[in-house]
Design goal:
mainly alpha
């Protein structure tokens, strides 16, 4: 089960990472980047790095708000 969740999160990271880089509109790029960062936090939760995942969400959530 963990392997399926990992591959789903990795796929989301790859797809939205490419979409974030290739998007021409700034707001869409920021939204795609937020999906990437949340997925990375999901991988941290998957391997039981809860503190690192919480820091990932709080720090980068602030960064996304500043970008928007």
């Amino acid at each position: 089960m963990e392997r399926i969740v990992f591959y789903c999160l990795a796929g989301v990271i790859i797809v939205f990472g490419i979409a974030s880089v290739t998007s021409r509109k700034m707001l869409r790029s920021v939204i795609y980047l937020s999906f990437v960062l949340v997925s990375i936090a999901g991988i941290f939760f998957l391997v039981d790095y809860n503190f690192l995942a919480a820091i990932q969400l709080t720090v980068y959530a602030g960064g996304i708000v500043v970008l928007i």
